[in-house]
Write a sequence for this structure.
């Protein structure tokens, strides 16, 4: 049965789209719509056509999975939308839910738009490295002018119904079911004479269009790594200066060019990767997620207070506990000042800030955690302390409560055992600043109960985080890979590369920050302590030069940005070169018999930092720590500033070619020696490269 049906009643033709769950624009929807439209065209007695959707939303976008289907081309969609717009009787569309991408373009092709209260509308294609390819770049500017059209298409942000009404994107916003809203609007329209209104024939409302285009073009050219932006601006310019047909041709050409681009493939890869990362092998659909109504956090430091805000922002009652009065006060102050700053910047209403703060209680007594459904410990990264804290939480937390650790590197299974109730325990590794960073590594312990895992993944969605499940190992997915990256950065420093040279080599690829800037910002003390803790647990290679620089910097009190000195010297936030850092590295090189040289090229830096990280990623996959390579990409894009237009380290490695990665790793092993196994190629990577296969050939267990 077709997912699109046509019928008429009370003199109005109705096309109903029912293609659950999101009514995505697919090939079958296209053919269904076309057939339904033909039925309307065949019945000249009907003065008006209404298009609406059943289910939770109007068409929420195009089915991206069908982009490779040649029958589902932009041309085919455009032909249908042009046919809808060309109708000689008015076409009304009733909108609800999320009206995005092709759904929005379908709406723009209709003559009138009525939306249910709460509807959100947008053209988010730019986030996938493409542009609206079904007339969106041509119709929207004609409707609202260049400034708003550019804002919506360049940001991809959805607009709420009321904003859409105020700007004329929709003609009415009402409470009620889409069908009823559409019929009521249609009848009123007929009563007023039922004028046709075709956006393609309209000219844009008056405004400062050329100025808006000039500044958008200038901004777009500053981010050439997102070529869709410049293409969008150029299409909008066409919409305002040329006829619809030539603008539509420019849009179609740009769409064809952008779709196969490396950037769009990378962005689409990450889009699917994020969706997949929530599917957990061994976690049956029927496992129910538990209810989390109150969250407790132990440790009100940088992380504890940031984590508290994640829950407060989502309207969840939160108890913040610290052993030290000063620690608690500092945490509370951090939360207050963050909200105050948001109010001052106009990003939050004062009442909203007060409402969030009202959900927070603080205590110096850990008994306050007893009624919580989930308790997250965020005390210092010290195994002895964490074991003691977990023992205590096992006693204090109510039966059935989830006990989570925010540890960055420590053994979650050992912490789970310490609680005496290991099935209740899970790692929840937030990233700093916790209220801002999207990533949440969910560490699945050997005994973590399926329901605990399901509850935490569900909760991650509610607090706006992107969860990725990791098994237990030192540093989990992200920090374990970062360790290899930092190891090579430090060896390069000792070999004579400057911090700026190293940072610039990876920043040139689009990483937000190179390793030296990153560690200086996170704190060299924090970085050094991680290495020291790992050493205590016997986790370091028997190599005295291993991460010797960070340990020395820590010893010398160079803690990075916070102390004004680290790999760089700081004036405020500005990082300046510091010859002293070079001298420290040179001394260490001499002490460890490392030869300094002056021929370190950017390519060598990239290969040593990033290819070694990919190799570690393959080991992580092979050990089952990550379920899929795409999960690793999500970790790096959402938690470590890896450029989304490169799709994450594993996707990037495939783009370079896995055989090429293997060849360069082997080259390092030969030229640098492989005493501690640093350059041993992962057997999984070796095998995939030899068989010319990609990571997709590996099935999740
Ligand atoms: P922090 O030093 O800022 O805060 C730790 C807080 O814990 C302090 O307020 C301290 O008073 C409190 N505390 C210590 N012992 C306690 C006890 N027995 N009971 C109650 N409170 C106690 O540390 P942080 O940077 O927030 O790190 C906390 C945890 O988060 C660590 O496990 C760390 O590895 C992890 N983490 C840190 C980052 C980061 O970038 N800082 C990122 C991810 C994870």
């Amino acid at each position: 049965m077709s997912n699109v049906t046509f019928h008429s009643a009370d003199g109005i033709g109705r096309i109903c789209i029912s293609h659950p769950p999101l009514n995505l624009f697919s090939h079958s929807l296209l053919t269904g719509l076309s057939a339904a439209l033909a039925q309307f065209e065949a019945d000249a007695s009907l003065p008006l056509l209404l298009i609406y959707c059943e289910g939770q939303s109007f068409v929420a976008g195009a089915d991206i999975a069908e982009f490779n289907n040649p029958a589902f081309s932009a041309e085919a969609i455009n032909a249908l939308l042009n046919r809808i717009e060309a109708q000689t009787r008015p076409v009304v569309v009733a909108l609800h839910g999320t009206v995005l991408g092709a759904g929005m373009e379908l709406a723009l092709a209709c003559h009138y738009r009525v939306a249910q209260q709460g509807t959100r509308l947008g053209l988010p294609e730019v986030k996938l490295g493409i542009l609206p390819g079904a007339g969106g770049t041509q119709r929207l500017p004609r409707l609202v002018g260049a400034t708003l059209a550019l804002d919506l298409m360049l940001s991809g942000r959805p607009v709420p119904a009321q904003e859409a009404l105020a700007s004329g994107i929709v003609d009415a916003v009402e409470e009620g079911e889409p069908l009823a809203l559409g019929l009521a609007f249609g009848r009123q329209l007929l009563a007023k004479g039922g004028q046709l209104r075709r956006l393609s024939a309209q000219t844009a409302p008056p405004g400062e269009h050329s100025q808006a285009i000039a500044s958008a073009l200038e901004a777009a050219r500053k981010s050439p790594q997102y070529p869709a932006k410049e293409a969008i601006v150029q299409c909008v310019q066409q919409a305002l200066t040329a006829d619809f047909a030539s603008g539509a041709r420019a849009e179609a050409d740009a769409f064809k060019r952008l779709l196969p681009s490396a950037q769009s493939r990378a962005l689409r890869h990450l889009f699917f990767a994020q969706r997949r990362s929530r599917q957990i092998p061994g976690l049956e659909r029927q496992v129910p997620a538990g209810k989390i109504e109150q969250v407790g956090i132990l440790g009100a430091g940088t992380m504890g207070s940031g984590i508290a805000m994640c829950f407060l922002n989502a309207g969840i009652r939160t108890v913040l506990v610290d052993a030290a009065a000063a620690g608690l006060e500092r945490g509370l102050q951090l939360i207050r000042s963050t909200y105050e700053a948001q109010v001052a910047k106009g990003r939050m209403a004062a009442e909203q800030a007060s409402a969030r703060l009202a959900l927070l209680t603080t205590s110096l007594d850990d008994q306050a955690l007893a009624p919580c459904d989930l308790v997250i410990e965020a005390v210092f990264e010290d195994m002895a302390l964490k074991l003691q804290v977990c023992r205590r939480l096992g006693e204090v937390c109510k039966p059935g409560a989830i006990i989570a650790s925010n540890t960055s590197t420590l053994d979650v299974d050992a912490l789970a055992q310490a609680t005496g109730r290991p099935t209740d325990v899970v790692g929840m590794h937030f990233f700093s600043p916790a209220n801002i960073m999207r990533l949440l590594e969910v560490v699945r312990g050997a005994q973590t109960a399926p329901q605990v895992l399901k509850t935490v993944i569900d909760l991650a969605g509610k607090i706006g985080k992107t969860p990725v499940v990791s098994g237990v190992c030192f540093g989990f997915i992200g920090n374990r890979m970062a360790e290899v990256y930092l190891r090579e950065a430090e060896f390069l420093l000792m070999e004579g590369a400057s911090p700026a040279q190293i940072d610039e080599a990876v920043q040139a690829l689009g990483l937000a920050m190179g390793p030296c800037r990153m560690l200086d910002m996170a704190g060299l003390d924090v970085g050094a302590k991680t290495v020291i803790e790992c050493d205590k647990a016997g986790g370091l290679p028997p190599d005295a030069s291993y991460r010797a620089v960070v340990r020395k910097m820590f010893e010398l009190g160079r803690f990075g940005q916070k102390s004004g000195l680290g790999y760089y010297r700081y004036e405020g936030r500005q990082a300046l070169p510091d010859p002293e850092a070079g001298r420290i590295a040179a001394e260490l090189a001499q002490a460890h018999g490392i030869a300094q040289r002056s021929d370190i090229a950017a390519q060598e830096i990239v290969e040593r930092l990033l290819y070694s990280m990919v190799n570690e990623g393959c080991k992580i996959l092979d050990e089952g720590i990550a379920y899929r390579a795409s999960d690793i990409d999500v970790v790096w894009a959402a938690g470590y500033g890896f450029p989304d237009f490169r799709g994450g380290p594993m996707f990037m490695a495939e783009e370079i070619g896995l055989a090429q990665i293997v060849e360069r790793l082997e080259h390092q092993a030969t030229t640098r020696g492989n005493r501690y196994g640093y350059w041993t190629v992962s057997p999984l990577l070796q095998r995939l490269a030899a068989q010319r296969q990609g990571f997709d050939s590996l099935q999740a267990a």
